[in-house]
């Protein structure tokens, strides 16, 4: 009887958690973009198409807004120096002389111009054949006034860090200045806040920026990376 109750308890807990199945592929697309960049809107549109096309698969899209285009007259409301620093870390890993937008990084392993449909399709096909080395479970999520708390667990030991990205499903912005002045832009899966930690289990708190409203559809995307920033697993849970 006790054993049956234990199995029932485990089943209930598992139903409240979100995570990919073992040996599945996980494709993480990180787009570094800016509302102040005139060549970024086509990449933003492509990211949105991918999100819709692969919404029921293990394809995770994130839009990181960088701040170095803000000097041209329009301050991207979703941009932070933290995301620019993250992009620079990729630049060092890829041995790039400079960073650029729109840059699409696929599974931390390769990068190219984010509006390139052909390369994106090839990358999606390529990484769909790769198996993840980590399985991530996200559970017991609690939304408070200024932060979101959750528990996590990672199976497998071939990772260095785990990133938790608070994501806003979409926003429409009318840009009045800068390279995209007088344009209405749609941004998808905007990273609002990011927390990086280590350890296979634990509790994390992710801050909620003041520009987020009650109308926003939120989720948490968690993904593990090795020491070279290559993705080793990913999961998502809606809030």
Features:
single chain, disordered N terminus, alpha+beta, Glutaredoxin, four-stranded mixed sheet, 4 helices, four-stranded antiparallel sheet, 239 residues
Distance between the termini: 35 Å
Tell me which CATH architecture applies here.
Answer: 3-Layer(aba) Sandwich
Radius of gyration: 18 Å
Structural class, please? alpha+beta
CATH topology: Glutaredoxin
SS field, number of helical segments: 4
Compressed to H and E, one letter per element, the order equals HEHEHEEHEEEEEEE
- Average pLDDT confidence is 91
Q: What portion of residues is helical?
A: 10-25%
Report the strand count.
11
Strand-residue fraction? 35-45%
Kindly provide the name of the CATH class. Alpha Beta
User: What form results from the Cα inertia axes?
Assistant: globular
Quickly count the domains. 1
CATH superfamily: Glutaredoxin
Low-confidence stretches: 1-16
What characterizes the major β-sheet? 4 strands, mixed
Strand order of the largest sheet: 2-1-3-4
């Amino acid at each position: 009887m006790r054993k049956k109750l234990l199995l029932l308890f485990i089943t209930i807990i598992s139903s409240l958690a979100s995570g990919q199945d073992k040996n599945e592929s996980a494709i993480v697309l990180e787009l570094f973009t800016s509302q102040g960049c005139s060549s970024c809107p086509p990449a933003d549109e492509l990211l949105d198409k991918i999100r819709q096309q692969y919404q029921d698969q293990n394809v995770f899209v994130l839009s990181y807004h960088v701040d170095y285009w803000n000097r041209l007259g329009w301050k991207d409301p979703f941009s932070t120096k933290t995301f620019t620093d993250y992009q620079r870390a990729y630049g060092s890993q890829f041995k790039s002389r400079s960073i650029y937008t729109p840059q699409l990084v696929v599974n931390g392993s390769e990068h190219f111009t984010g509006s390139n449909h052909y390369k994106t399709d090839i990358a999606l096909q390529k990484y769909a054949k790769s198996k993840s080395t980590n399985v991530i479970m996200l559970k017991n999520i609690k939304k408070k006034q200024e932060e979101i708390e959750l528990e996590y667990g990672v199976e497998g030991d071939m990772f260095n860090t785990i990133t938790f990205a608070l994501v806003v499903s979409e926003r429409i912005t009318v840009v009045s200045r800068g390279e995209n002045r007088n344009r209405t832009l749609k941004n998808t899966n905007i990273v609002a806040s990011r927390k990086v930690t280590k350890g296979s289990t634990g509790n994390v708190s992710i801050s909620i920026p003041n520009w987020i409203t009650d109308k926003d559809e939120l989720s948490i995307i968690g993904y593990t990376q090795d020491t070279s920033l290559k993705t080793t697993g990913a999961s998502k849970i809606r809030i």
